[in-house]
Design goal:
The chain has about 55 residues and is an all-alpha fold. About 90% of the residues lie in helices and about 0% in strands. The protein contains one helix and no strands. It is rod-shaped.
């Protein structure tokens, strides 16, 4: 009858879902930081090419 205990299964379900949510939020935070860093690199490269684009 232990397999039919809905409360225990529901607690495990919530634990797994909350763990997945935490991992998803960490991935979102990491991708946000990575994207911001790449945008800064692209803007710095773009500033270097402005003088070249003014010549043409």
């Amino acid at each position: 009858m232990d397999y039919l205990d809905f409360g225990a299964w529901f607690q495990y379900f919530l634990l797994i879902i909350s763990g997945c949510l935490v991992l998803l939020l960490l991935l979102l935070l990491y991708s946000n930081i990575y994207t911001r860093q790449k945008i800064k690199e692209i803007e710095q490269m773009d500033e270097g090419f402005e003088s070249f684009s003014e010549l043409h």
